[in-house]
Amino acid sequence: MNEDQFLLYDHQKPILLKAEKISFYLQGEIIEAFTENNEVYYLIFYKYQFLTAVKAIRLRRKSYIEDSFKKGMVFNAPHPFINGLLSSNAPLKIISFQPLIKKLDRLYTPQEKSFILTFFESFFPKKQLFEQINSVFFEYRRNGQMFLGYRIIRILMDFAPKHSLVKQLANDSMFNKYADLYNQKSEKLFAKDLIFAEKTLYAQKDNEECFQQLVALMEKESRWIDLSSLLIYKLSQTPSIDYYQLLLDQLEKHLSENETVQILEKLSNDLPSFLPLQKELFEKYVKNFKIEKVLNMMNSYHFQLNSSQVQALGDILDCVDSEGQSFQPEVLKDLLKSYIDFFPEKAEILLNKYVISLLKTHELDYIKEWLNPFMKNHQCLKIFEKIDTMKRLNEDLDQMQTLGELYVEFGQFEKAIECFSWEMELKPTNTKPLQWLSKIYREMGMNHEADAFRELCIDIQKWA
Fold it and tell me: What is the pLDDT of residue 223?
């Protein structure tokens, strides 16, 4: 399966889904996923715990699900947050309404249960959900727990504000003192009703004081993913080194190095000018030997490597398969020059290695100029003489044999074949180009062609 594919079980029947995106909104997490036939499923979590999944036909307007993708922190797949939630809750099984109610009764407070039920407005009959939430209120009222009962009324006021019973309860004089308390939105109230507190603070998260309170609430509940999502949002609005460092601390504490880099890369697309982030990515690329990305950032941001970084990357340049990589030649040149200045004994090996790579895509004139910066401190290297010779011979048809042998030395078989073919045509009685052609084709695994040139060489030798 691909990174963003996973299995959901419906009565032991596996359904293969592909995650599309995830939303973090008011203590809930929603993953939107699709089958191969484009059927949509919503996986519903509460504080990172999987509740159930539902196949969606349509979403109610202004429902929790719709709001979550409009007002929440949304991330497209593939994403480490998605992978983390799915893997930590596997196996994922669909449960129907009544088993869901039992699960909520077992795992959560009555207030949390009431709030969670509002997540399902688009999937279960609203009347059924209302009755469940209403029954929690009446249980509290029967027990004389009026403040706890009013907390449920506040949930109903958001869920079914036009319902006659909700209107009646909201205006009941016995709840006036609690209504006043909620209207004041005091810290004392926030400490007692965290669901209401988060909803209020989230709606005003662009206000610095509310943002700080929201951060404190998430830290207290150890909801690091919600906190990270909130910080990503904040950074996208107003980049700040303090918030960036807080985000980085959360990611590095809970995720692998690779997962952290994935998230920072996604964030960097929105913050190309935020240098602390770009420098962090640069350092992580260096640390993890992502040479192509290091070179790209050196080119884009003119970042400079320190001596230890030069050594680390130089060691990798020494080992990496240059033919399997595509490097920007000018940035590669700067990196190689920095490394060779520290370790001159590596010059001949590395320059030969990367000239071989450059010869595949660049002309000799370009390569000669590319090598010029290295000549000042390394005049005696054989590579300079060889490229000079190849450039000089390139236009001399009488020197195709020598040029072809130099191309073979650099592993450029196609260009060598062209040279030896010219030599063979110009000097039909000379067996030397035929011997080389046979050898090259054998090296390339083209035994039929190799045998043909070998036989031709033998025939010419017989008639000589």
Answer: 97
